[in-house]
Design a protein that fits this description.
By secondary structure, chain A is α/β, with parallel strands linked by helices. The first copy, chain A, has twelve helices and 14 strands. Chain A folds into two domains: 124 residues, Rossmann fold (3-Layer(aba) Sandwich), CATH 3.40.50.720; 164 residues, 2-Layer Sandwich (Dihydrodipicolinate Reductase, domain 2), CATH 3.30.360. In chain A, strand 13 and strand 14 form a beta hairpin. Chains A, B, C, D: Pfam families: Semialdhyde_dh, Semialdhyde_dhC_1.
Chain lengths: 345, 345, 345, 345
């Protein structure tokens, strides 16, 4: 039985980890910390957990965390980078759901997150935890940087196109849309139901923190610098990301090969589902599940290939992928605790 | 391994049965019928089931159904009453999620459903499947009439009040609210997102089909005729029912005893959660789960006791309760396949 | 041209006043105050107003407000009671949309609002601004206390029943449901889209601030003490209130007279629409409009009369009623600026 | 007073025309036809219109329509092309909100709409009614083809870029998102609240009927063949379109000139609002209003210019633009009946 701790458990990522781990047969959550809610039973904050956990939030305490086999960080950026070095030195393995260890270029990190990075050593050693790209490295990692939600949907969708070299890596567009839970559980006026419940907008269109992560990931996949334009949008729903991806085929005739290429690339992936060409994946088809579903399109004889890719931002885009990474790290069946179908309607 | 069949599987109740049974370790779904969709793989209609079921919808065929241990009916009213007699004669056990066998007075049934009842014998033998009231009878039943969604939330909330005789049974009010999935998956203009997505209304305020079912159930519990006013409302959400119940205490001082009364009544019930007095149960706290959560209130020294009771209409109000009934009928752990936490946010 | 000021204009009531007054031919908004947003153009906060107002928020300044003919208070409770005396002394007329002057019993006010009332004189002189009850007094009022949203929907629905004496005033139940804008525009976690976007719950079931206002209003109408139970609920939509009202007929046969009674009572009311008996008013049918629509029901031969009453909480429940009161106070056509149809779909 | 008729008034476009015309001082609606609802008062179908119209739907009758000064067609495709020739011969002026007269190439029309076009003469004579492009022609037109919703948002956003020749016309991408009212008011399962209320997806990604209209319009603006990829998406809200447009600057340095270019291009347009560079227009900022709001972005030093453009699909994307066209055709103030602010929150 893996003894797991969660640092920063009051947000949506925290409660989603608790939901998924409640039915995981090989894990027990031994502590969950929150500075602001210390002492409060988790089931008082999240009544869906009544009857599932007796646990209360506790003050973050490094000694307690050291007794865990694995610690998940579900904190704002800047927290994990300060606590991780001591924990890993004590032999604790880490899955960090925050952005602290996702970028390799620390000056880029500092620019986007507005503070210097304090753990260069571990930023270098951290494994970027996209299992479809880095499963072997994840298996042996001490520290896994769990990918962001948008970067997960976007990298998986572009993956076969860039690996195969069939598209122009300097002309990538990712138009992505997310439900409101992606903004977290904080009392911001801009995220009130009264503000966004019946409206749609782009945001971060001049630059969003996930842009450098996407660029780094796609460049690694393409083994070349890519140029990617990424515009996120806010959808009046709670969960789900859809990314519509546009790439230019070097040879338009190659479009005919793409469906097979995608299916073969993901054949052995338990959580990537390539739907028949021309399908339109719905976010609800992955709601609550760890799957990424995608489908290919093109319009008439255009040289533009279109990929629509959907995930649940809180599952494959956060807590589910973290559990998947844990399963890999601890040599469990990769789908353990993640096998329930998505939640529809 | 229980071999289960589903008749009428294209609606929301059908897909919810499939979702729940996908992770149930003791059941295999051997057939699912649909006249309109025969031949179509279920995963083509419901993409959340891709990878979980290879099954396709088939024409309803009595011989095939006879090979099942259990058949769920998820059909419009009027279907089960015609097919059940032959199946039970063949030894198949039945959980009917439709309204066909819920009412004991067949003239009342005929009035509300607009057709004569065709199976008086089985209407009499059917066990009304509210486990919190009739667990023993369900265990041995050949045919279980699975309760309606509103009647489940309302009967559970009034249960301790009527059993204890502390309230006036002639002055009960049930003001209930449901998400849109309660209306089923049919192409009605009135249920379009464009019509109801940002609106709220009462419906059936002069009389709804669940009224006689509620009255019959509450009268049985009270062992006396009750008078109950029931007004349903349509909420712009997909799942969930909240019922606010009003009853008049014969002796206002008895209010102080109610919290304990409720807690004791439901102490051994795996799916009824009495929250602390003064709580406000949210429908999302039971979304996707088989729980009914409830809480008690009164205003100043009023003699009116208020109960707020929530369920997921598709789970405890339909497919989940059907699985619970199946578990009881087949002497399984009652929570088998129903132990995942609700889905929040 | 009436010169109007608005104190506390950043909330939903403030922007709704601006929306309605933008097309009102007889009013000009000369100042709108906000401590927190002073200096910011209103159209920067509310882009729907781009092109309609050049005005910026200003610091609240009594001297500037004294130059207005009318001042609307759209402030939290406790603000108007401190500023009103000086303004009325200067001859300014006031429509207070806050709760400060709604209750006549100041000890009750102090209990519910958690502070002593500081303007007993004006609390007594204030006219409770429900035009359907107090039109003549409003016409000459210096200070109008604009009714709360729930109290408006509930009082109008009970009005003919209580005036006529046909129902038992000691057994009234008001089960009311509101969209999220009723909670105002503040960064509360509990009002995030992620929290309430796909959920329904009761709140304040043990006592809500609108209860004493409702009780005071209904008692005045009934000319007797009433006992009323009031439970509000939160609907995952932005605007709209539906109140389902239950009352016990002294003589059940009187139900047949009620439709005519209601129609006659409201025949000359420009903003109350009695729909045909058995109708189900939708909140969207009044969205953006100053109307209250209602309809009558009963179930079989019950002695319970059911009234479903809908308003837009920001219009007839706040800003629209304030404009209606202003129209009455300044002897304008009562529908001036309020004649656009509701917004559907 | 202009005497207007509406053919096909039961859909969302029809009720929106009625809502807007209810407050238009220069128009009276003398007839509204519907085959399916003939005889039904419009206010029975649309309760928001109670008190505003006494009119009932009537059978479509050419003689009655001939007595109108103007007829709006709010019909499915294929209807207007059969009725228009006789009406225009009788001197009636037409604004056709359907797709019948939008495309000049009738073989393209036949391909996308699955039937031969029956009125080649009037397809040629029809003026494509985008006032920002064709105001003078509209003024004198007998027949105006009112643009589609997506084409309106997309053409306005690309307009200054293509007119100025600053971008590559062979690499245009329009990623557009629409609320559910765009699919009309028909009982389709796929548009139920239960299906789409909490989900997001692309649709028509391999080709949508608005693609040839967009291509025709952009090519006319660019005075060259354009290549445009257009992917529509369905947003779980009722009204609103947001289009995120991507174009490649021939010279990246030109980006600095674009804000001024856009502001100047639309300076005299009453319904196009260029927001400050870097803004994110929200669909709610135009809900119920005839405005198109847009803003410019680019990411770091990219050569991709991003335009986010929002409209209300039922107003500027349908009924509002039809009223605007009518105002132009009858030499009224272009904003007559269209001056109310958008509806927020």
């Amino acid at each position: 039985m893996i003894k797991a701790g969660i640092v920063g458990g009051t947000g949506y990522t925290g409660v989603e980890l608790l939901r998924l781990l409640a039915t995981h047969p090989d894990v027990t959550v031994s502590c969950i910390t929150s500075r602001s809610e210390a002492g409060l039973p988790v089931a008082d904050l999240y009544p869906n957990l009544r009857g599932h956990y007796d646990l209360a939030f506790s003050e973050p305490d490094v000694e307690t965390l050291k007794s865990c086999d694995l610690v998940f960080f579900a904190t704002p950026h800047g927290v994990a980078m300060r606590m991780v070095p001591e924990l890993v030195s004590a032999g604790v393995r880490i899955v960090d759901l925050s952005a602290d260890f996702r970028l390799k270029d620390l000056s880029v990190w500092a620019d986007w997150y507005g503070m210097p990075h304090e753990s260069g050593e571990w930023a270098e050693k951290a494994v970027y935890g996209l299992p479809e790209v880095a499963r072997d490295a994840i298996r042996d990692a001490q520290l896994v940087a769990n990918p962001g939600c948008y970067p997960t949907a976007i990298q998986l969708g572009f993956l076969p196109l860039l690996e195969s070299g069939l598209v122009d890596p300097s002309r990538l567009i990712a138009d992505a849309k997310s439900g409101a839970s992606g903004a977290g559980r904080q009392g911001k006026i801009g995220m009130l139901h009264g503000e966004i419940g019946e409206s749609f907008k782009a945001y971060g269109a001049s630059g969003h923190r996930h842009l450098p992560e996407i660029r780094q990931g796609l460049s690694a996949i393409a083994q070349a610098d890519v140029e990617v334009t990424f515009v996120p949008h806010l959808v009046p729903m709670i969960r789900g990301i859809e990314a519509t991806l546009y790439a230019e085929l070097k040879n338009p005739a190659d479009f005919e090969r793409l469906q097979t290429l995608f299916e073969e690339r993901f054949r052995d992936e338990p959580f990537v589902d390539v739907m028949p060409q021309g399908s339109h994946p719905e976010t609800r088809s992955v709601r609550g599940a760890n799957h990424c579903r995608m489908a290919l399109h093109r319009q008439e004889d255009s040289n533009i290939v279109i990929v629509s890719s959907v995930i649940d931002n809180l599952v494959k885009g956060a807590a589910g992928q973290a559990v998947q990474n844990m399963n890999i790290m601890f040599k469990l069946d990769e789908t353990q605790g993640l096998s329930a179908p998505a939640f529809l309607p």
